[in-house]
């Protein structure tokens, strides 16, 4: 057996033990040296693999995928395009964003409305949720805000054509709905209601959608 | 009492398709690391690796997801999607071709010339040099080394991921290892010209 035949017969070092006693190796120092190099390389690659094994995808990837999964399982069957279109740039939701949304809502609600409401306009708590952004909002801009159930906030800038927006889910007093033209019974004014607030690139609230 | 064996990927896929979030999370956590590392090795870019990982698992949610258990494992299928996505990103120019991750990559390239330059491959500097060598491989060889040597995919799964016969995987891997050895020897002993690495024919 020559060198070529030897390496053809066991090209991938699958069985190092069998190689150790191979007849050809007893006669060929060059192949012994080459084999030693290959085994050292294999060991080195193993060490690289061990070192790299702690490299994982950042946590936000899982968070985005969970949002997509929930949106997918929650929406009507047979509409995969909705996931596809919005999936690449699902916004990253942070507590800071939630706080900004709450602050923006509070400023809006306190500034111009609710003099007769017994309930404070500032929400009592914020519950951030990774809310799914309908693809239409992201791609079509402000013109579709209303179609998505969002109500543009007075004096707020319009959503730009290609503007990335964030959604945060907050909990606000039902009395906040009065400011946007909803009828709220006096007995319900102090109740809480969930709302999605749409934030523009600048972090300012542009529109709101009440979930109740 | 013996613990129950972990659910197979196929079982998890069936469950997640029926809306089981826990199955989705379990499958993601089981496979995300390898997919992310593969994309990172192939693109050299963390943002690309992040996007690719996300897209790979989003693909499982789509109705047109083309996974066929008869053609290979889910793992091989996921690597195949990742590979296509990486290529797409690289074609768009979204690739750094450097591994700028947070690993403690040695900056020292001035390694002592040793009688056996491969003897230190498991040391820190040796590992760093080997990572650079892998990164410098042509794509077709790099992907097979990453899949088979670093992520320990078997050749059948690697063949599914690469869309080629198993024999091609074997031959590419063989060639890739030869290139790695040449690269390492050159890096550790720059005075040794490429011409000096010509294999000596053995006639025994």
Explain what you see.
The complex is a heterodimer of chains A (212) and B (204). Chain A has 212 residues and is an alpha+beta fold. Helix content of chain A is 42%, strand content 11%. Chain A folds into two domains: 3-52, no CATH class; 60-210, no CATH class. Chain A is rod-shaped. Mean pLDDT of chain A is 66; it is low at 75-97 and 112-142. With 204 residues, chain B is mostly helical. Chain B has two domains: 8-96, Rna Polymerase Sigma Factor, Chain: A, CATH 1.10.1740; 109-190, Orthogonal Bundle (Arc Repressor Mutant, subunit A), CATH 1.10.10.10. Helix content of chain B is 60%, strand content 0%. Chain B has eight helices and no strands. In chain B, helix 2 runs antiparallel to helix 3 and helix 2 (21-43) crosses helix 4. The longest helix of chain B is centred in the N-terminal third of the chain and has 23 residues, at 21-43. Residues 98-115 and 193-200 of chain B have low confidence and may be disordered. Chains A and B meet through helix 4, helix 5 and helix 6 of A and helix 2, helix 3, helix 5, helix 6 and helix 8 of B.
Task: Quickly describe the structure.
The complex is a heterodimer of chains A (212) and B (204). With 212 residues, chain A is an alpha+beta fold. Chain A has helices spanning 3-9, 16-20, 23-27, 29-52, 59-74, 80-87, 95-112, 135-140; strands spanning 151-152, 166-173, 192-199, 205-210.
How much strand content do the residues of chain A show?
5-15%
CATH uppermost class of the largest domain in chain B:
Mainly Alpha
Q: Please give the alpha-carbon distance between the first and last residues of chain A.
A: 81 Å
Q: Number of helical segments of chain A?
A: 8
Mean pLDDT value of chain B:
80
Features:
heterodimer; A: alpha+beta; 8 helices; 4 strands; rod-shaped; B: mainly alpha; Rna Polymerase Sigma Factor, Chain: A; elongated
